[in-house]
Design brief:
Elements: H1 2-12, E1 20-23, H2 27-41, E2 47-50, H3 53-61, E3 66-67, E4 75-80, E5 84-85, E6 91-92, H4 99-107, E7 109-117, E8 130-134, H5 139-148, E9 153-155, E10 157-158, E11 161-162, E12 170-174, H6 182-190, E13 195-198, E14 200-201, E15 207-211, E16 216-220
Parallel strand pairs: 1-2, 1-4, 2-3, 4-7, 7-15
Antiparallel strand pairs: 5-6, 6-14, 8-12, 8-13, 9-12, 10-11, 15-16
Helix pairs in contact: 1-2
EC number: 5.3.1.6
Catalytic activity: aldehydo-D-ribose 5-phosphate = D-ribulose 5-phosphate
Keywords: Isomerase
Length: 221
């Protein structure tokens, strides 16, 4: 918990009065939201955009108003988490099931910060299962396709039911192992009809803030 808090506090230093801020999804972001709510109560004036229903509900419990994505022309800064980060600041995201909206919000942001603890740092991406968001109509065929590609796919389930994203899609988690060429894999997967989005985030993060038990360190692109 202290590692996440140290990363969260450091990230909040980048938020300035009057900004429009994107809020990512996940447990580390939720620590940041709690800390951010304290700053708002002290007088920080910002607009917040959410990447998931989960984040919206969590922010609302701390009195943070979430604005509609289409109500803002640009997002100054988005703070999100990551499931894995490599030395090139590439990441795997989507463990919380919000990869599509996270990528859309990130694309529309001037700057992107990821906050992680040191356990998320890897030399090569791929030990964490790669989430691929897919159209339900195509899910069964895509499972077979991914099996033929030796991606070891598993349809994500919650309480023995298919996990459904905020946009009504399914997620296939691919247990690939180390990914030699993340960008090429992302492009190849996105060319397959029925694939909506891939949890590889390449050239997205401007800063990665790593939380340790006694400090936070900033990696910059």
């Amino acid at each position: 918990m202290i590692k996440k808090l140290n990363a969260a506090k450091k990230a909040i230093e980048y938020i300035k009065d009057g900004m429009t801020v994107g809020l990512g999804t996940g447990s580390t972001v939720e620590v940041m939201i709690e800390e951010l709510s304290r700053q708002i109560k002290k007088g920080l004036h910002i607009k917040c955009i959410s990447t998931s229903n989960r984040t919206t509900k969590y922010a609302n419990t701390f009195g943070i108003i979430i604005h509609e994505f289409d109500s803002v022309s640009r997002i100054n800064l988005t703070i999100d988490g990551a499931d894995e980060v490599d030395p090139y600041l590439r990441g795997i995201k989507g463990g919380g099931g919000a990869l599509l909206y996270e990528k859309i919000v990130a694309y529309n942001s001037d700057k992107n910060i990821w906050i992680v603890d040191d356990s998320k740092l890897v030399n090569k991406l791929g030990n964490f299962p790669l989430p691929v968001e897919v159209i339900p109509f195509a899910a069964r065929k895509l499972l077979l396709k991914f099996e033929s590609m030796k991606l070891n796919p598993v349809l994500r389930k919650t309480d023995n039911k298919n996990f459904v994203t905020d946009s009504g899609n399914f997620i296939i988690d691919c247990r690939i192992g180390e990914i030699e060429n993340p960008k090429e894999l992302e492009m190849n997967l996105k060319m397959i009809p029925g694939v909506v989005e891939v949890g590889l985030f390449i050239d997205v993060a401007d800063y990665v803030i790593i939380g340790y038990s006694d400090r936070a360190e900033v990696l910059e692109k």
